[in-house]
UniProtKB/TrEMBL annotation:
SMART domains: PX (SM00312). Residues 11-20 have a biased composition (Basic and acidic residues). It comes from the Eukaryota. One of its GO terms (cellular component) is endosome. This is PX domain-containing protein. One of its GO terms (molecular function) is phosphatidylinositol binding. Pfam families: PX. Residues 25-137 form the PX domain. It comes from Stentor coeruleus. Residues 1-10 have a biased composition (Low complexity). Residues 1-20 are annotated as: Disordered.
């Protein structure tokens, strides 16, 4: 059985201030609840989102596939930037109550991370997501993938603190080294998650055994001691499973690590595209040089356009390729600057804070549980103590 999240999971979030932003807007967003609805072929889960910002309150219902579409828009419009990950889709058993509850909590964490990055929260895809039409997929059909020239202007405007950032080989090596560290960390956290799940289930078995043990002791005392007063101590069933806190942290941490790894991978992907753009520019330049020297291709010879028109067409190809190439270089530089100066340092700082908070919560519950056990058996001892004649 998939256990549900502990009560320590955050459900409200506040937008954090990006570097050099002039203002900070307070926003509260939560995936409030879920329900099952009938679809064309089968039932599906719908998650209710509720929130408030400076424009007022908002409320909407979204399916998991709409969350997936939202993230695809983020990835399309902000390549190389941190985009929070979603819990993985599960084909079999996706209507299981425990699975839906777990997914709701992770979707709540997702929107909270979106809010913590102003450029994502204020983006058109997310504003349509929380305030748009009932069918998000149909409502966003006009959203198009931006060109690198458009991305260049958007990145400069959104991230002015790194608009003039210059990269070098050492920076690339540092990012590659950090990616390797993330891979190792992800492997360890996944292993820790497995241990936590076993501990959660072991706790429930221990809880049941202890309950039966204490009830058995109470029954046996009937044959040996007069019962002063029937004392049904039921606290064990009310104890919070402290291991859930660690399991919650592990699940969220896996998504957080994968999100940053994804940002680095997208940056590397952009660099691969840059190589293709450079090759394409070289081909266009060579074609222009051949035409200017009188070496025309078969298609150029068969074309009815004048030589002046053909030359202008080739020059336009070269100019467009150069423009896209330069724009892509700017996007890569800014994405790299964000990684080095903001995303990686913030990741280290915030994850340390979250781990410390998790450990405090876990330790507090363990101490509380220990004290409750003492109280429980102290009361039980008082119940079976023989009456002094």
């Amino acid at each position: 059985m998939e256990e549900e999240y502990s009560s320590t999971t955050e459900t409200t979030h506040h937008i954090s201030k990006e570097p050099l932003e002039k203002s900070e807007e307070i926003v509260t967003v939560t995936v409030d609840s879920y329900k099952l609805e009938d679809g064309r072929m089968k039932k599906h889960a719908v998650y209710k989102i509720f929130g408030q910002d400076s424009s007022g309150t908002f409320e909407c219902n979204r399916r998991y596939k709409e969350f997936k579409m939202l993230r695809s828009y983020f990835a399309m419009m902000w390549p190389g930037c941190y985009i929070p990950k979603l819990p993985k889709k599960k084909v079999v058993g996706n209507l299981d109550t425990d699975l839906i509850h777990k997914r709701k909590k992770l979707l709540d964490y997702f929107v909270g991370r979106v809010v913590s990055y102003g450029f994502l929260y204020k983006s058109e895809p997310f504003q349509l997501f929380i305030r748009g039409p009932a069918d998000y997929i149909k409502g966003t059909i006009n959203l198009k993938s931006p060109s690198f020239v458009e991305l260049q202007e958007k990145y400069k405007e959104t991230f002015p603190e790194v608009s003039d950032f210059e990269t070098n080989q050492k920076i690339d090596d540092d990012i590659a080294s950090f990616y390797t560290t993330l891979e190792d960390c992800l492997r360890r956290v996944k292993g820790f998650k497995k241990v936590c799940k076993k501990s959660v289930l072991s706790f429930y078995r221990y809880e049941d055994s202890l309950t039966r043990l204490s009830e058995g002791v109470c029954q046996i005392t009937h044959y040996f001691f007069p019962i002063k007063e029937k004392n049904n101590v039921d606290f064990i069933k009310k104890v919070t499973n402290a291991y859930k806190i660690l399991l919650d942290w592990a699940r969220r941490e896996i998504l957080e690590i994968e999100s940053l790894m994804d940002a680095i991978e997208k940056k590397l992907y952009l660099e691969q595209i840059l190589g293709k753009y450079q090759a394409r520019l070289g081909e266009h330049q060579k074609g222009l040089e051949n035409f200017q020297s009188g070496k025309k291709s078969l298609m150029q010879r068969l074309s009815k356009k004048t030589d002046e028109q053909k030359l202008k067409h080739l020059e336009g190809h070269v100019a467009d390729s150069e423009k896209e190439l330069l724009a892509l270089q700017v996007v890569i530089r800014i994405a790299t600057g964000r990684l080095i100066h903001y995303q990686i340092p913030r990741f280290k700082e915030k994850e340390t804070e979250k781990l410390e908070s998790t450990i405090r919560s876990y330790s507090g519950l363990v101490v509380e549980e220990f004290n409750d056990f003492i109280t429980h058996f102290t009361n039980l001892q008082e119940t079976i103590t023989p009456t002094v004649i």
